[in-house]
Write a structure and sequence with these properties.
Length: about 200
């Protein structure tokens, strides 16, 4: 997801070793942050896919079965278990968790005992960590989402594709500040008023 921070040569060398299949997998760099692994056995593919989600160099990977897709962003799917906190007890049901999950992506499974869902998200879209849910009767509540085994994301815009130092949102606001577009704002864009005495 973040080719600037993930070394492709190291990834192609290390992942088969991490999976303990280095003698049965061949990897190839396809360029533009994409790669491909060739497996000898279908069982090996299935074993690897059970290990989702994947990460390398503290950043996430989208690893999916090959498909002749034309979309230049393919692949972008990442499967996460997401713990949902804040659901009111009388709304604690599979349908509630599925509705929350559908706002994130494609729901694969619901674990009511642990209060979590397994969902396939689009790794190029920002992560959602909290959202307001409206229940029957107009009851609204804030729920908080915690992604299991999540590595590396921008703390400013929640993207998986860059860190906060390379965030385009940060760059735009810093450029506006540099040009003096925030001069009329007594909070200087930070929400806390700064006053100087002369």
């Amino acid at each position: 997801m973040n080719p600037q921070m993930q070394d492709m040569k190291a990834l192609l060398y290390m992942l088969p070793r991490i999976w303990k299949m280095e003698d049965r997998i061949a990897g190839a760099d396809l360029g533009m942050g994409k790669f491909q692994f060739h497996f000898q056995k279908e069982e090996d593919i299935q074993e690897v896919m059970k290990m989702e989600p994947f990460h390398f160099d503290y950043w996430m990977l989208s690893l999916v079965r090959w498909s002749p897709v034309v979309d230049h962003q393919y692949p972008s799917a990442i499967k996460f278990w997401v713990r949902i906190m804040g659901v009111l007890l009388h709304f604690w049901a599979v349908v509630t968790f599925e509705i929350i999950g559908k706002a994130l992506g494609s729901v694969e499974a619901v674990n009511l005992d642990e209060g979590k869902i397994q969902v396939i998200i689009d790794g190029f879209k920002p992560l959602i960590f909290e959202t307001t849910v409206e229940f029957d009767g107009g009851v609204e509540t804030m729920v908080y989402l915690r992604y299991e085994r999540l590595f590396g994301f921008c703390k400013i815009c929640q993207s998986l594709c860059h860190d906060h130092q390379r965030c385009p949102t940060r760059s735009e606001s810093e450029e506006r500040r540099r040009r003096g577009e925030f001069n009329d704002d007594p909070t200087n864009g930070y929400g806390t008023a700064l006053w100087e005495h002369g």
